[in-house]
């Protein structure tokens, strides 16, 4: 899954695209180079980020989603708002990627149930402005697995087909660096819950801290390493900025597994 942030302030690629046409061209290029999904987001979730208004978010994402869908690119919409999810599915998106797993907007799960699209439910504790105040865990793998199981139950109660749900541990969201490593090591426990699993490690700070690389764009090799290892564990997808590196990494992992 390629990341297409149409925000002025995302942590690694904010402000990269000058206009809709540039963003659309970047999304088409991601699909052409191996992204099976392009994930369009109009609200930065970088730690400490303030929220954007609904209208601003809609103005940023709907034209890009619409043009990509028309070009035949499978689009997921990265939003915590039901109204944005609804507008983007109407514009052609086929998946909703909700970093709050339905907790930020009480209309989200029932809206998604009615839209009949795939739904990513990520582990989340608070909006980005405050999330790093909530990094206490008894056992992070156990706590996140339990929270994701509860979100899966909430999805089912709202009428979402469990086959449509994808779970995501939410690396970097209300997590300290060691929590992210423990969650990666604990992927088998998350996979055992049942649904497909998505991992979003791309360019995140815990990789920069490990390798002493303060620039997010210098973390793509590390990201590809995570992609290979996560693919070998059996995750369904990896959400990345550099599609080519992770596409190659995932292919290596696949060939390795298939030789069994
Ligand atoms: N991370 C970010 C944004 N959206 N969605 C999912 N499902 N999983 C993630 O880990 C995730 C996400 C933050 O990264 P960005 O600013 O590079 O988009």
Describe it.
The chain has 260 residues and is an alpha/beta fold. The chain contains 10 helices and 8 strands. An 8-stranded parallel beta sheet has the order 1-2-3-4-5-6-7-8, covered by helices on one side. The protein is globular, with a radius of gyration of 17 Å. The mean pLDDT is 96. The structure holds pterin-6-yl-methyl-monophosphate.
Question: What descriptors fit this protein?
Answer:
8-stranded parallel beta sheet, alpha/beta, 260 residues, binds pterin-6-yl-methyl-monophosphate, 45% helix
How many whole angstroms does the radius of gyration measure?
17 Å
Which ligands appear in the coordinates? pterin-6-yl-methyl-monophosphate
Average pLDDT number: 96
- Topology order in helix (H) and strand (E) letters: EHEHEHEHEHEHHEHHEH
Work out the strand percent.
Answer: 5-15%
| Largest sheet features | 8 strands, parallel
Q: Assign a percent range to the helix content.
A: 40-55%
Globally, the shape reads globular
Strand order of the largest sheet: 1-2-3-4-5-6-7-8
Structural class designation: alpha/beta
Q: Spans with pLDDT under 50 lasting ≥5 residues?
A: none
> What is the terminal separation in angstroms?
26 Å
This entry's quaternary arrangement is single chain
Beta strands, count: 8
Q: Can you count the helices?
A: 10
């Amino acid at each position: 899954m390629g990341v297409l942030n149409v925000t002025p302030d995302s942590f690694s690629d904010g402000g990269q695209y000058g206009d809709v046409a540039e963003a659309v061209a970047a999304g088409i290029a991601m699909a052409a180079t191996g992204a099976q999904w392009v994930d369009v987001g109009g609200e930065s979730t970088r730690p400490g980020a303030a929220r954007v208004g609904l209208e601003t978010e809609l103005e940023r994402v709907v034209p890009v989603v619409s043009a990509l869908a028309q070009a035949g690119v499978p689009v997921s919409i990265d939003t915590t708002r039901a109204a944005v999810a609804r507008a983007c599915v109407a514009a052609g998106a086929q998946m909703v990627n909700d970093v709050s797993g339905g907790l930020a907007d009480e209309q989200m799960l029932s809206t998604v149930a009615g839209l009949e699209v795939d739904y990513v439910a990520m582990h989340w504790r608070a909006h980005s402005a405050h999330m790093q105040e909530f990094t206490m865990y008894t056992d992070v793998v156990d706590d996140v697995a339990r929270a994701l199981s509860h979100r899966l139950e909430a999805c089912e109660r709202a009428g979402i087909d469990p086959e449509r749900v994808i779970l995501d541990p939410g690396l970097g969201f209300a997590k300290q660096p060691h929590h992210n490593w423990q969650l990666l090591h604990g992927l088998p426990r998350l996979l055992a819950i049942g649904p497909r699993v998505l991992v979003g490690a791309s360019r995140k700070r815990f990789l920069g801290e490990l390798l002493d690389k303060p620039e997010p764009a210098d973390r793509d090799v590390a990201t590809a390493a995570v992609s290979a290892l996560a693919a070998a564990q059996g995750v369904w997808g990896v959400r990345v900025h550099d599609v080519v590196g992770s596409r190659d990494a995932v292919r290596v992992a696949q060939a390795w597994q298939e030789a069994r």
